[in-house]
Amino acid sequence: MSSPLYLDHASTTPPLKEALEAFFQVAGEHFANPGSLHKPGVSAAASLRHWRGRLAAAFGLDDWEVILTASGTESDHLGVNGMARSIGGNESSGTNSRRPRRVLIGAAEHPAVRDNAITLREEGFDIEFIPVDPGGVVRPHELESMLDQNVALVAVQWANNELGGINPIAELVALCRNLAPQAAFHVDAVQAAGKIDQDLCDLAADSIAVAAHKIGGVRGAAALFLRPGGTRPKPFLLGGGHEGGLRSATENLSGLAAFATAAEIRRARLHHDRELYHRRRDQLLKVLRTVFPNCIVLGPDKREEIQGSILAVAFPGELAEPLLHRLDQAGIQCGSGSACAAHGTTESPILAAINLDPQLRNSILRFSLDGTEKEEDLRRVAQTLVVSR
Asked: Dihedrals φ, ψ of 204, to 5°?
């Protein structure tokens, strides 16, 4: 049997060797609680500052505040719910109707944003969805028509987790600053960070969520970056006052070290080769079309709007599940939608948001790349699908 070929990096990616080395080194050398006043604690605190700074620098956010969390979902929760409550939440004496109460989110957002935002309805917020085009991208004119002085928060992902479409975040933020200056702008960059050769500060958002396990760090480590001088979210995890009072819990120092190391490696790779992901995606699509010439590629058409690490393809007349299992039996792993859904058994709101033909919704495979695949590896995917027909 051929060696395994893992093409599900959008759900999680194997930890990099260097990241694991950093994890174990820091876990052994700086095991103490960074909040303790003895020498081991002081040493751990110094290490925490060191790695926090390296993580921020790896994403081009040197002067931004880094709030350590345990997952991308938690970072989105703090960025969405925390920001909305900070700007438009209840006063201690009751609801002030003059505070902004509208929350606008992209119609194709990850559940970490969408489902968390919806819970704000219980607190009197109005949750509205910004339409997306057939490629899953929020166009500036769609957001522009919705902005007013009653908007508390806008949340739009940088790259879509199922389709790979890249949103024009900087343009959307500029509109928000002009037409709804009181609003905060949150970006779920979990799927894009470390995979697009661009500093996150260029997005100019107020808060940006990232997660380690998407780029070769370890699970249980993530962060929310906050723009200097911008809105600070209301915390929901209280206790010891860690992370500037925004996220109480003893810091995951070893996870942070692995995260920062992985982010630095990803940054260096992309600086060296900006087409790293697109080249693999092009190769994979070419071989897939030799087997399924009528396959339909989902997402945007323009190359500059496509995240090269994701290729979502619909196979008319086929069911995704048998194809997925056939690939898995051959040692090739891929996805059939968002892995954060209940094993892909629920209707995808993203596919509904782009009005995809219902007959195609059960025929989609999502291949997500690491960028290190060889062309002969990718040819195996087509060869395996030939056998399955």
From this structure: 65, 20
pLDDT of residue 150: 97
Calpha distance 30→41 (Å, rounded): 8
Distance CA 159, CA 271 (A): 19
For 200, the domain range is 17-268
**Same domain flag for 85 and 200:** yes
The pLDDT tens digits of the residues spanning 55-67 come to 999 999 999 999 9
Domain match, 146 and 250 both: yes
Domain count along the chain: 2
Q: What is this structure's pTM? A: 0.94
| Phi, psi (rounded to 5 degrees) for 132 | -120, 160
Above 50 in pLDDT, residue 342? no
What angle, rounded to 10 degrees, do the helices at 253-272 and 17-29 form? 150
Q: What are phi and psi of 155, to 5 degrees?
A: -130, 120
Between helices 276-291 and 375-388, what is the axis angle to 10°? Answer: 30
Q: In the predicted model, what is the mean pLDDT of the chain? A: 92
Contacts with 122 (C-beta within 8 Å, 6 or more apart), sequence order? none
Task: Return the amino acid letter for 359.
Answer: Q
| Tokens 């219980």 sit on residue | 122
